[in-house]
Specification:
heterodimer, A: 112 residues, mainly beta, five-stranded mixed β-sheet, B: 115 residues
């Protein structure tokens, strides 16, 4: 699986959009971009994933550049409960190996 | 979806002893995974445990130290053997459900402290 690069930490004001960047310049054609988050003292939680088109669900939006070398996770209206470590991961979806390899992630602090 | 429970939720152990962690899933799954999260660090994959076959260990992890059992499609155990303070971590199990790509679930973790 390709590696990703994320800033170690970010702050966001409550109610504002949180934009979390991720670089994945060595992503392969069949690899998806996944985002998970880990709230303190809990297991990681799936947020969203995409291949090349932008995706949106009830939690977030995922914007993938046309060359697929980077992406941005957008939390449109951040709340204090969104404070967590956010992990950007690239992997082959539904692969037989099923491996999910975590990088260091971005610690997002949402402030009142 | 899948609901995962782990036992114990936390434990304090003496060095040289062993701890067995249980992972129970509310549905049948083919692939189960064990992760370690050292203090202040990200998750590191220990091994993949598929029912009916030997677990597959990642580089740096060996069966003698981290024996795994996978007796059926809803249950697995991870034993951390010959404990040392460096084994103090959170251990998490994880499962993959379905083929849509959004079916990865994690247990709440087991917090191990070795004195």
């Amino acid at each position: 699986d390709a590696k990703t690069t994320q800033p170690p930490s970010m702050d966001c004001a409550e109610g504002r959009a949180a934009n979390l960047p991720c670089n994945h310049s060595t992503i392969s054609g069949n690899e998806y971009v996944y985002w998970y988050r880990q709230i303190h003292s809990q297991g990681p939680q799936y947020i969203i994933h995409g291949l090349k088109n932008n995706e949106t669900n009830e939690m977030a939006s995922l914007i993938i550049t046309e060359d697929r070398k980077s992406s941005t996770l957008i939390l449109p209206h951040a709340t204090l409960r969104d404070t967590a470590v956010y992990y950007c991961i690239v992997r082959v979806a539904s692969s037989n190996t099923g491996k999910l390899i975590f990088g260091q992630g971005t610690t997002l602090q949402v402030k009142p | 979806s899948a609901v995962i429970s782990q036992k114990p939720s936390r434990d304090i152990c003496q060095r040289g002893t062993s701890l067995t962690i249980q992972c129970q899933v509310d549905s049948q799954v083919t692939m189960m995974f064990w992760y370690r999260q050292q203090p202040g660090q990200s998750l590191t994959l220990i091994a993949t445990a598929n029912q009916g076959s030997e677990a597959t260990y990642e580089s740096g992890f060996v069966i003698d130290k981290f024996p795994i059992s996978r007796p059926n499609l809803t249950f697995s155990t991870l034993t951390v053997s010959n404990l040392s303070p460096e084994d103090s971590s959170i251990y998490l199990c994880s499962v993959e459900v379905g083929l849509a790509g959004d079916g990865r679930f994690f247990g709440p973790g087991t917090r191990l402290t070795v004195l």
